[in-house]
Amino acid sequence: xxxxxxxxxxxxxxxxxxxxxxxxxxxxxxxxxxxxxxxxxxxxxxxxxxxxxxxxxxxxxxxxxxxxxxxxxxxxxxxxxxxxxxxxxxxxxxxxxxxxxxxxxxxxxxxxxxxxxxxxxxxxxxxxxxxxxxxxxxxxxxxxxxxxxxxxxxxxxxxxxxxxxxxxxxxxxxxxxxxxxxxxxxxxxxxxxxxxxxxxxxxxxxxxxxxxxxxxxxxxxxxxxxxxxxxxxxxxxxxxxxxxxxxxxxxxxxxxxxx
Length: 259
Hints:
The protein contains eleven helices and no strands.
């Protein structure tokens, strides 16, 4: 298992994909800082050309609660996209680059290979989440946002962490799709379908019963009128994550690799 994890980490380190995902989360944190900068003084933002002369942003305050909530919402939506692409790349690349037979010829159990990929995916997504939080704290401090308190920041970081953990669990079926579909495109297709359905179901008010809508509800992205996900929503997320891991491992173990 240690050798399998080390191998998957080496593949990731020699790829440009981690740098792309890190850049995406850097841009996301910077965009949140830009919104806070605009909200601090909209007249200044107009003079700098950041918003139109007739544009106005209302309903939000430039403070720590707003910024931390924005980081959680980034993790729910942007995280689903980026974390999903991480799983697609880790599992789909073996088929798209025709390396799957070489991988399966090694004296390592197929289940071990799958679990190693999931371990690397989890560590990768954790690193991206930590990066987002650290950048958020740096940007918020640089902007001198009001409303700082240790309790508030701890609560905000806990929400980001919980949102990220659930989002990572929800990407395991995407890994199965990339494996069973033998490439990137099936995984990307399932990822886009999950994101679309999550938005629609949440808008209809049934997000707490649809696992892919639960992280957005937890982050507050769906608005204050939406029901906060309860134990049932969290349980559904965990079940989906476990089912995705099990299905992927079983497919790799029993599927015929004839190409």
